[in-house]
Amino acid sequence: MNSTEGQDFLENEIVGPDINIIYYMANATGGKLYDFKTRGMKAIDISLISPEQYKHKGSITRKGKVGSARDFGNVAAGIVAGRHSLPWGIARLGFDGLQTYQEGTWRDKQWSTEGEPTQKAQKIGYDIGESLRGREKPLLYDYNRTSHRHRIDL
Q: pTM of the full predicted structure?
């Protein structure tokens, strides 16, 4: 495996631009801009791979760790929450609230919680986000490009 799409997504689209939390929340589900797990899905041959399988496609981090597209999306959500000073308990409430809405259990007045792997990925991102609070200067500048590139080590 040699795809670095997940690491690139986090560094170039989540960490680098320091996006607004409300804008992120509105665009991180339903195949929108920051819904990483669905990127490129329209171009796949569904006779070869199901949409659910596609969401679990793997990517590798700079340190050699492997994660699914879902994992990288959950790390991104955590980064945004942590960077914008949302307390972890409130972030969890928001993540579980979205899960409840997506599962439709709110109709039956039932509350859903996300699974342990999802929560772990979100917490990893949250800790990274907390470490980025207040940083105005980029972590790394690539002089071969016109934009700043932020580097995070996962």
A: 0.83
92 part of a folded domain: yes
Domain residues for 14?
5-132
Mean pLDDT, residues 67-96 taken together? 95
Burial of 42 (0-12, 13-18, 19+ CB in 10 A): exposed
Q: Is 143 within a domain? A: no
Number of compact structural domains in the chain: 1
In a domain, 51, yes or no: yes
Burial 97-116 (b: 16+ CB within 10 A, else e): ebbbeeeeeeeeeeeeebee
Q: Which residues contact 7 (CB under 8 A, 6 or more apart)?
A: 59, 60, 61, 62, 72, 152, 154
β-bridge mates for residue 140, sequence order: 149
- pLDDT score recorded for residue 41: 79
Report the SS3 class of residue 149: strand
Does residue 146 sit within a domain?
A: no
47 band by pLDDT with thresholds 50, 70 and 90: confident
With a CB cutoff of 8 Å and minimum separation 6, the contacts of 91 are: 78, 81, 82, 122, 126
In the predicted model, what is the mean pLDDT of residues 88-107?
90
Q: Which two tokens stand for residue 107?
A: 């109709």
